[in-house]
Amino acid sequence: MKRILSILILVSIGIIAGLQAADLQVGDQAPDFSLKASDGRTYKLSDFKGKRAVVIAWYPKAFTSGCTIECKSLAEKGDLISKYDVAFFMASVDTVEQARAFGDEHGAKFPLLSDPDKKVADAYGTLRDYGGSIGIVSQRWTFYIGKDGKILAIDKAVKPATSAEDVAAKLAELKVQMK
Known about the structure:
Order of helices and strands: HEEEHHEHEHEEEEH
Radius of gyration: 17 Å
Oligomer: single chain
Helix content: 25-40%
């Protein structure tokens, strides 16, 4: 019994450590990914290297209150972001079917990336255990990645209601090229 308890404790410590694996900073190379999206395509960060900046807005869970407010902001005022030469995505650990339904319901004109095995969210350091029915999901963080693949900024204080305006303002501040 002691052996089983010891193994469970070690496994728990490993899981907790894994949830805090990445501590990415501005200037770090952004972790590459290959994720399916709500539009049926698969996107790789490496496909944009040398071509376009990338914004990845991680969100916890489709159809929850804050995520719905954020998605609506980005869908309704996405024209503010589309003025920039940037590939923009929302991303979560939801299934691609959930991401598609969520994006469709709120009129998203941008792809929603799906990371159900949580590997990319872990690489970006966004995983958090919210407990209860939500469980382990991504935190609401937005990553701004330059054409060189390096992280330009990380917003860990995203305001769902003004997300589109805030992303556009950050792109301007970072002097991301306009279209």
